[in-house]
Amino acid sequence: MKQLVIFDLDGTLADSFPWFLRVVNTVARRHRFRSIRPEEVEMLRGKNTRQILDFLEVARWKLPFIARDVRRMKSQALAEIALFDGVEVMLAELDAKGIVIALVSSDSEANARRALGGSARFVAHFACGASLFGKAAKFRKVLRRAGIPAGRTVAIGDEVRDGEAARIAGIAFGAVSWGYASIDALRCLNPDFVFVEMAEIPLKLGRR
C-alpha cells in the first residue's frame, strides 16, 4: 500500500518566518495586540499556539480578522518568500519512491501553488484555506481523498499545532528543525520523526 506524506507550507517548505517577523508588529498595531521585541522571538518559538496568543494578549474573537489580514499581506509579498533549499529535490525523491504527497495550509490553494512554483507538480492533494474545524479536520479530508489509511500517513510540520493536529487525526508526525517553533518545543511532542536537514525526509520515510 502507498504511503501518504502531508506537508505544512509556511516554515516547512516555504521560508516565510523572516517575512512574518518583518510584518507582525504592523499587524499588532492594526489589531491592537502586544508587539514582539527582537529579544522575545526565541522565547516565543518555544511556546505552543495558546501560550503565544496569551503572551501577545490576542483576543480570540480577533483571530479570523488577523488571519485574513496576514493572508492578504502574504499574497502581496509572495515574491519575497522563497522555498527552502532542497525542497524541489526532496519532493522529487519522494515522488520517485511512489509516495503520495499532499499539502495542508491556512493559505489559499492559489497562493500555495504560487509559493511552490514548479514543485507544485509533485503535490497530489491540496487542503487549503481557513477552517473552522482546525488542521486535524484537513488531515482527515486528505486521508479520505487519497484513500490511504492513517497508519500509512505522516504529517510533516514546523509548529506545535502541527504535531497536536496529527495526534488528533491519528497519524504520525515528523518535526522539522528549520521553521517557526524551536526543535526543543517540537521534541516535547515525541514526534515519530525529527528532520534536521531537508535531505533526511526521503531517506527516513523510504524506510517505512
Structure description:
This protein is an alpha/beta fold and 208 residues long. It has two domains: 135 residues, HAD superfamily/HAD-like (Rossmann fold, 3-Layer(aba) Sandwich); 64 residues. It has ten helices and six strands. A six-stranded parallel β-sheet has the order 3-2-1-4-5-6, with helices on both faces. Helix 7 crosses helix 8. The mean pLDDT is 93.
Layout of secondary structure:
Blueprint lengths: L3 E5 L8 H15 L9 H5 L3 H8 L6 H14 L10 H10 L3 E6 L3 H8 L8 E4 L5 H13 L6 E5 L2 H10 L2 E5 L6 H5 L5 E3 L4 H6 L3
Parallel strand pairs: 1-2, 1-4, 2-3, 4-5, 5-6
What percentage of the residues does DSSP assign to strands (E)? 5-15%
Order of helices and strands: EHHHHHEHEHEHEHEH
Main sheet overview: 6 strands, parallel
How many helices? The count is: 10
Helix share bin: 40-55%
CATH evolutionary superfamily of the largest domain: HAD superfamily/HAD-like
Work out the count of structural domains: 2
Query: Which shape, going by the Cα principal axes?
Result: globular
The count of DSSP E runs of length 2 or more, i.e. the number of strands, is 6
The CATH architecture of the largest domain is: 3-Layer(aba) Sandwich
Distance between the termini: 11 Å
**Helix-strand makeup class:** alpha/beta
CATH topology of the largest domain: Rossmann fold
* Major sheet strand order: 3-2-1-4-5-6
Unreliable sequence segments: none
CATH class of the largest domain: Alpha Beta
Q: Roughly what is the average pLDDT, rounded to an integer?
A: 93
- Radius of gyration, in Å, reads 16 Å
